[in-house]
Amino acid sequence: MNLEKIIKENQGTIVDVRTQGEFMGGNVMGSINIPLLEIPTRIEELKGLPQPLVLCCASGGRSGQAKQYLAHQGVECINGGSWLDVNYYQSLNN
To answer: Is this prediction's pTM over 0.85?
Structure first.
């Protein structure tokens, strides 16, 4: 899966796995916030979102952990890395 193409074609859902406080400090327009620690308890919600899920966080570490977990749960997802990078790709569409 190509991150830039997924975002450009408005496929899937952007999920920010940072804490709510971090998310409130800045986020990708249209993204949803599901903190990394809440992912196991919100797995059914995540499975119900349009896929692929583009996961992002501050640097790519937490989104990488989320990707590994979700992939094992059968969720189509990609590690988008930093939310700033995802935001940049999305801004190219506007």
So the answer is: yes
- The answer as to whether 82 is a domain residue is no
Distance CA 79, CA 54 (A): 6
Q: What is the pLDDT of residues 49-93, one digit of tens each?
A: 999 999 999 999 999 999 999 999 999 999 999 999 999 999 887
- Helix, strand, coil percent values for the chain (each to nearest 5): 45, 20, 35
Using alpha carbons, list the distances in angstroms from residue 26 to 72, 83, 94.
29, 9, 18
CA distance 16 to 33: 5
Q: Are strands 53-57 and 32-33 parallel, antiparallel or unpaired?
A: unpaired
Question: Count of domains in the chain?
Answer: 1
Q: How far apart are CA 6 and CA 41, in angstroms?
A: 26
Residue-range definition of the domain harbouring residue 29: 1-50
